[in-house]
Amino acid sequence: MNKSEFLAQLAQQLRGLPDEERDEALSYYSEYLDEAGEENEEAAIEELGGPETVARIIRANTAQPGAAKAQAANAGQTAQTPPPPRADDPFAAHAQPVYTSPAPQPEAARTRTPVWVWVLVGVLLIPVGVGLIGAVFGLIGGVIGVIVSLIGAGVGSVFAGAVLLLKGVLMLASYPAGALYTLGGGLLAVGLGLAMTAAGIWIVAKGVPFLKKYICLAIDWIKRKVREWR
After folding, report:
1. Residue 172 pLDDT > 70, yes or no?
2. Which of 13, 141, 160, 207 has the fewest CB atoms found within 10 Å of its own CB?
3. Closest Cα partner for 165 from 147, 146, 191, 144?
4. Integer Cα distance of 185 and 149 in angstroms
5. Number of Cβ atoms within 10 Å of the Cβ of 61
6. Could you tell me which of 196, 215, 217, 197 has the C-alpha nearest to residue 207?
7. Which three-class secondary structure string do you get for the chain?
8. Rounded Cα distance, 148 and 191, in Å
């Protein structure tokens, strides 16, 4: 429900009241919703309880001013911080909260870990850390060696196949059968070389981002654990 709908229904609910009191009530709630802001209109209307609830409180306030104030004070009891009422405002008892975010709660004091504990933990973890780092670098070095060997073997195979193809072409006139055999071997060598080279390039293209992703995740995990231990 927006402001226009709320005021229209409130005017219907206040039929029978003197025109002056009804106009004053509509003017008050119009100003109140303007102050709440367009983005908070629906929340403000929900806090008020809807036009029926507001009209009932206004009628009670007109009939029994003392009782109405106690009843109106409960309209919007879920509010956080009510605005200060104006001294000349006959509907001050209906004032609703300004919608602000709750104040941040202070964090509980943390117990700082003594420095000697960190020194002791660091000394105890040195062998484990060195072993893990060595294993990681060994794995990375092995993968790099395989990739380099694969690409190198592929390039070498392509070069050897090209030599065989050239030799087969030169042998066609003098020894056709041997030339065909040599040409077949050259084509096979070139095909295998291209396949190995492509495989090595594919491993580099897929493996580098994969390793980078998980290395970054491992570093972030270590940072979180260090912050938690502190």
Report:
1. yes
2. 141
3. 191
4. 22
5. 21
6. 215
7. CCHHHHHHHHHHHCCCCCHHHHHHHHHHHHHHHHHHCHHHHHHHHHHHCHHHHHHHHHHHHHHCHHHHHHHHCCCCCCCCCCCCCCCCCCCHHHCCCCCCCCCCCCCCCCCCCCHHHHHHHHHHHHHHHHHHHHHHHHHHHHHHHHHHHHHHHHHHHHHHHHHHHHHHHHHCCCCHHHHHHHHHHHHHHHHHHHHHHHHHHHHHHHHHHHHHHHHHHHHHHHHHHHHHHC
8. 18
Determine the pLDDT at residue 111: 59
Enter the tokens of residue 139: 């794995």
Over the range 92-128, which residues count as b (16 or more CB within 10 Å of their CB) and which as e? bbbbbbeeeeeeeeeeeeeeeeeeeeeeeeeeeeeee
Q: What confidence tens digit (pLDDT) does each residue in 48-94 have? A: 888 888 888 888 877 654 444 444 444 444 333 444 444 444 444 45
In one-letter notation, the amino acid at residue 44 is A
Query: Comparing C-alpha atoms, which of 47, 35, 36, 45 is closest to residue 5?
Result: 45
Do 161 and 186 touch, CB atoms closer than 8 A?
A: yes
What would the two tokens of residue 120 be?
């002791």
Distance from C-alpha of 97 to C-alpha of 90, rounded to nearest angstrom: 17
Q: Is the pLDDT higher at 120 or at 158?
A: 158
